[in-house]
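Incident review: delayed structure delivery

Summary: a single-chain prediction request sat in the queue longer than the usual turnaround. Root cause was a stuck worker, restarted by the on-call engineer. No data loss occurred. The affected request and its eventual output are reproduced below so the record is complete for anyone auditing the incident later.

Affected input:
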Amino acid sequence: MSDPDASAEDAAQMVRLLEAAYAAVAAPFVRSLGLRVVSARKTQSVLAMPITPHLVHGGGVLCGQAMLAAADTAMVLALSAWFGGFRPMTTVQLQTSFLRPVPADAGEALITCRVLRCGKSLAYGEVELALPDGTLFAHATTTYALIGGGSAG
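Output delivered after worker restart:
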């Protein structure tokens, strides 16, 4: 059976919506990460981030700051999918566990975000960062304050 959240056309429209939100509201630093929306539906979104030399530190691995920025931005986009468009919010908590180093030649990272709960003033999510082969390298839980109130969705 097909995804209960969206038809293929709805999913493609959601991807376009998130790409537009990313282009419109992300800070230039965040846009320099090169995030790309792979798939999107109301409860889960997947983004890809190319692992490029400007994201690799002197130890030859992807820097944690890039992982945090990607996780935070991807979750904001996942919540935008939940709401059907971007709405103002701010990060309250981003608890991240770094599980293994990501070598400079890994290609890209996949960032999978799930909306766990969305209330009137707070939203909660979970983010997994993995290599294309599925190897998990970081995990995060998130809390966002919804500016101007949220929606129980």
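Verification: The longest helix spans residues 64-83.
Action items: add queue-age alerting; document worker restart procedure.
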